[in-house]
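Person: Please comment on this record:
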Amino acid sequence: MNLYPSRINITRLEKRIHGVGASMKTIRVAQIGSGFISDVHVRSFRQVGGVEIVCQHDNDVARGQAFCAKWGIRDFVADYDELLKRKDVDVVSLGLPNYLHHPFAVKAAKAGKHIICEKPLALRLDQADEMIDLCQKNGLVLGYAEELCYLPKYVHAKGVADAGGLGDVFLVRQHEKHGGPYSPWFFQADTAGGGILMDMGCHAIECCRWVLGKPAVKSVYCQADVFYYQQITKLDDHIIMIIEFETGQLAQIESSWTLRGGMTSWLEIQGTAGVCYADLLQNGMGLRVFSEKGYEYGDFPDQDSTKGWHYPDWEWLWQNGYPHEMTDFVKCVREGGTPRESGADGRAVLEIMIAGYLSAATGKKVMFPFKDPGGYNTPVEIWLKARGQL
């Protein structure tokens, strides 16, 4: 079933804008991983002209084979090293737990494959540097999968600010909260690298940097705690961060796994002559449905989630910016150039997150240029040590 029929004409328009047509080179993608975000990547790539998902890999053979059957992917490849030898693979799309981003990306770069890597880019700055350096030396595109910077509502809000509609922008706020992650590995320091800051705080950080034109950071202040999931994890489930930039502008971030009753995601841009609010999820983007029995349709997998009043997200993939993200990445692979969100941006976000954990550990602002304290395998260890939990 095509869940996004109204996107057909827009996709054709994008083909004309990007100069692609029947003679364009097909970009062949290997999807790595079988979780939620890998579903999103496959669906998004299939919204982009001239892209083929040729194979998939997962360390769990049964799960990987089921993923391939679900999405009609021709080949499941059990050995990642063998997959990288394939000449029909141009791109690897990494939808893996955080701790696997670096080793899988390094192997791909050495094999000459372009990479789009889910957030966070890596768990340490030296890992991020290795990924970036290898891709630069081998002439490869390293895309950082930060969809908020492609989200149509947020792109429009930034456009209003860039056009001078708000005067001089001095504050950007981004808040994203929900009831907790969808997979157990998010609660473990060795696999996730940190809690909510590494999971959703990274979105807010980069969104604010991007809105302001990615200025240099002057200081980072962060408060972190675990309020709801104490029986499950030691990792942070709620953070508040203030970033001061060299321009004098501020970003204020709140990210949380503690919200009961759904999810919120919104952006606010304040200037001397106006303000702009962009609410991603307000009332399901305008749809209201009441169903006594519930139903299975679109992105709702079961009837229970659709019983009673609810507010469906129509064209969820498109509204969340994922096809736009992949269109930009594929264009850079095909034609050359740097994606809007690159490996360098992923590194900048990682540096801010590490500074955030250091600030939360000391209760003080962390000044930039940042001096990495080292001595950790995952960023959250800095904070856990200060709490006597490591």
In short: The chain is about 35% helix and 20% strand. The CA atoms of residues 28 and 52 lie 5 Å apart.
